[in-house]
Amino acid sequence: MTLPRTAWLTALAVGLVAILPMQPAAAVDWESLVMPGPVIAGHRETEKECRKCHAPFARDQQRALCLDCHDAVAADMDGKRGFHGRSEPARTSQCRNCHTEHEGRDADIVRLTPQTFDHAVTDFALEGGHRSVPCAGCHEPAVKHRDAKAACNDCHAEDDVHETRLGEDCASCHDAGSWKQTRFDHAKAGDPPWPLTGKHAKVVCELCHAGQRFADTPTDCAACHRIDDVHQGQRGTACADCHDTDAWKEPTFDHLRKTGFGLTAGHGGLACAACHQGGNPKKVAGKQCVDCHRSDDAHQGRNGTQCQDCHATRVWDEVRFDHGARTEFALHGAHAELTCVACHKGVAAREKLTTTCVACHRADDPHRESLGTDCGACHNERKWADAVRFDHDLAKFPLAGLHATASCESCHLDKRYAGTPSACVDCHRADDVHEGGLGEHCADCHTPNDWRIWRFDHDTQTHFVIDGAHDGLTCIACHQRAPGQGRAMARDCGSCHRSDDVHDGQFGSDCSRCHDTRTFRGARRNTR
Q: What is the pTM of this model?
């Protein structure tokens, strides 16, 4: 028959009375006698006052006793703030479920695992660039996690180029995604407001607000664009009569109505001085294409002077000659961006060019034609080096997990690919902490998702079940050397716990008759 815990405590107390020498009852500290172990250093002052944390025979009252002392945590729970107030398990369960005491002065009863802690259940969710900041970047060693500073200037005071002249509410303009990317609404600033339109919206703040000066910033065009005035002040300072903020060099002056020469497409973006010498409207260049574009004629006159048959005014290098319809080679991707003379060295109409990839790209082929000449099987016309569409999953070695993020060069050193080794140890021999002692079938325990993520099941793949306190141990706590073939670990308790045996071996090495793996302290009575 197994006795309940209270009966055991009663029996223990009666036994102690029987063996203790006769002395006044007040001299016996009964609670200290049954204490399972010392408390942490922070609770040392209340160690002898058990009722500070325990109510006799009423474990459900223990949570309230904890919160009596930890009033800041209690306030968080009531206000549903902080980790203990936002986390449903922390707010409703018993404190002892997470914080186990009586394990020694230096015991870690917080048991925080930074790698898996969900910061979203705190008052400061990690967003944007904050996700990549290490814990120590915000949490100082001597400061409780709940007391970590959360204001922008607590961490970013040195990044404040305004030197607090705009206050400390950084979040009104900046966000956690990127400190340099702001969302300040310029349309509501100034008196009167001065919205940023056109290209002004892309100008960096410092270009107008030199030295972080915001008050009394000039807003007239000439204040910034005097150096851009090709008229050199001859037409006054009312620049907005002809220009707008979309493009300084694209005036709103109606050139077609006033001159008979419409400034369409690319011509519309030209500065006046590009055609009118010195910006003088009276000094006009010719109106034929070659009058301005003779030096741009890559054909050097071989195709005549009717440039408009192939070229448009929007962009000189963009032709409307339909290469796909009028030849057997359509220009797609990067080919469409080439100039004619990149391929046509002579008179285009009389040339006969080869259209195979290697005809132009033989020098770009790092495989030296070891994979054949059908470059289009893997490459396309958009980008020769980066836009490769080879499906590695159809090869003998599909790319799974982190292998999918590895660059080709990390495995294929010579660009020839054939004969590339595929065993784990071929690349990870230096990472094998077992030093080959477990063979070369790394995939039996490890996965390609991460070398440190392993799926070895000690309970089913060995003769030693990991439970109780053993469950929290690292491998090297028992395996001091890398295990190998024929090298077996002893499984009896005494092999590891001989120094913990207060009986000095008097009861043998089968400690499990009285103890279990949950804790070595205390014992269960064997009634068999």
A: 0.36
